[in-house]
Design a protein that fits this description.
Blueprint: H1 3-21, H2 39-49, H3 65-72, H4 75-102, H5 115-122
Helix pairs in contact: 2-3
């Protein structure tokens, strides 16, 4: 596991621990998160929050990353986005492993004809 994932897991752990210890579920975004996300990712999170249609009052092009994080408004959206992407990575790795395991064996290049080709030659 790379350092970025480890750092994010520690941050997420802290967020979830704080959430579990309080009854007041105030919406907040941890400012530490900003250094782990590119602008494009923050916009993807916002787009997913609003099901693909961003409200007109948000001009994302002009907003700074801190402002984008404020639009997200809740750490849970960030956690959801990241864990979804991590799960997609895991599925891709599984597919790659299955593809390698189930790839048909290539015939050995020993110069011998296969039974199918020898039958077709006998019909001459």
């Amino acid at each position: 596991m790379d350092d970025t994932k480890k750092s994010l897991l520690k941050i997420f752990s802290g967020i979830l621990k704080r959430r579990s210890s309080t009854e007041n579920n105030t919406l907040e975004v941890t400012s530490l998160l900003i250094k782990y996300f590119k602008r494009k990712e923050l916009i993807e999170i916002i787009t997913s929050i609003y099901n693909g249609s961003i409200p007109k009052e948000y001009n994302l092009v002009e907003m700074e990353n801190e402002e984008l994080l404020n639009v997200i408004a809740d750490d849970m959206f960030v956690i959801s986005y990241v864990t979804y992407n991590w799960s997609k990575e895991i599925l891709e790795k599984r597919k790659e492993v299955k593809t390698v395991k189930t790839e048909p064996q290539k015939p050995k290049a020993n110069g011998k004809q296969t039974p199918q080709t020898s039958k077709s030659n006998k019909s001459d």
